[in-house]
Amino acid sequence: MWFHDAFYDPKRDDNEGRSAQWARDSVLEAGLPAGIADRLHALVLATRHEAVPEDADAQLLVDVDLAILGSDPARFDESDEQIRLEYAHVPEDKYRAGRRRVLGEFLARPRLYSTDYFYSRYERQARENLSRTLARLGG
Questions:
Q1: How many independent structural domains does the chain possess?
Q2: Residue 12's domain spans which residues?
Q3: Are 1 and 63 in contact (CB under 8 A)?
Q4: Is the model's pTM score more than 0.85?
C-alpha cells in the first residue's frame, strides 16, 4: 500500500509502473531478497486494475483501492468531482468517454470486490454509484 500511487501524474499513463519499480528498487536496496522485491512489484502493478486479482494479498490490496466506489453517494460524487479536477487538462468529451469506459469495465465484472468482506460491505452501493454516474455521463 505504501508504494501504490507513489508516483502519480494524471498526465502520464505509467504511474503504477513507476511506483512498482520504485518499490522493487527500494526493497533490493534494503538488502531483501529479489523474490520479495518481485512480489511487491507485482502487487503494486495489480492496482492497474487490468485483471481481477487472483491471490489473497492482491485481492485485498485491490479491494482497498476500490473501496471508494462503494462509499455513500455523496462521498462517491465528491471523489468523482475530484477525479475530474485531476484530469482538468483532458477535454470534456474525451474525459467523459474515458470515464465511461473505465467505470463501465468495472461494472461489467461479475464482482467488483474479490474478498468476501468488501463484497458484502460495498458491492451493492458500488454498483449503484457506478450505474448512476454512467447514466450521468451518458453511458
A1: 2
A2: 1-48
A3: no
A4: no
